[in-house]
Please model this.
Amino acid sequence: MDEMIQKAARDIKNARSVVALTGAGVSVESGIPPFRGKGGLWEKFDPMEIAHIDSFLANPEKVWRILVAEMKGIIDKAKPNDLHKGMAKLEETGNLSSIITQNVDGLHQAAGSKDVIEFHGTFAMQRCMECNKSIPTSEVSLEVIPPRCSCGGMLRPDCVFFGEMIPTDALWRSRDLSEQCDLMLVAGTSAVVEPAASMARIAKSSGAVVVEINMERTPLTGRVADYSLFGGAGMTMNRILAEMGL
Ligand code: OAD
Model:
């Protein structure tokens, strides 16, 4: 492992353009449960029943109560961990250009990262389904569920539900960055949800070195990833930074 950390530190330092692709695993150490695996949200709920746009439209009250209200309580309390802080440090020191994140928790930005593409939208804002007005989630009262806009329309989180399109700007910019980077740091994602996972494949087929940080093997391991660093996201990031002298 030490050798792998040294190699990752060297590769990041020598790369011209480093882009990160992150998933729920990078926020686990901030107290936010992942979707898949042990303790994951999809162990308790069927994603197609709870996170598909059709389920939301058919029964918004149920989805709001189970998914959104629960997430609001957890995200409101979460603070960035060493992985988020480490990526912000990499950006600040010119060693990371952008982060493509599947997370909607805003923790990369809270840690100070400036260029964050929110591939699956954000939970920080709610959008009125009638007048399209955006309202910060922190200002939304959960006394009435589903909550309503001042115009009477129903609010929905500004996240991408299953069955919905990825925001066009996020998709195109992510594709461009994945094509152009020469190192992609993939952290805390099971790499099974498309099209997010294919950003690593695009990077690889465009000639980038793909480095993975995860607790366990993923479909990228040994195939798309040139090498994998197994371990907790925060601790692994700290070891890389220490090796880089940051
Ligand atoms: P998943 O929950 O599918 O995967 C989390 C990954 O993080 C797994 O591979 C874990 O092994 C790893 N992991 C867990 N704890 C970790 C830790 N402390 N350090 C490092 N790795 C750790 O999350 P995503 O890949 O982000 O989509 O899921 C992708 C999408 O599926 C989400 O954006 C969401 C979900 O349904 C939508 O909501 C549209």
Q: What stands out?
A: The chain has a mean pLDDT of 95.
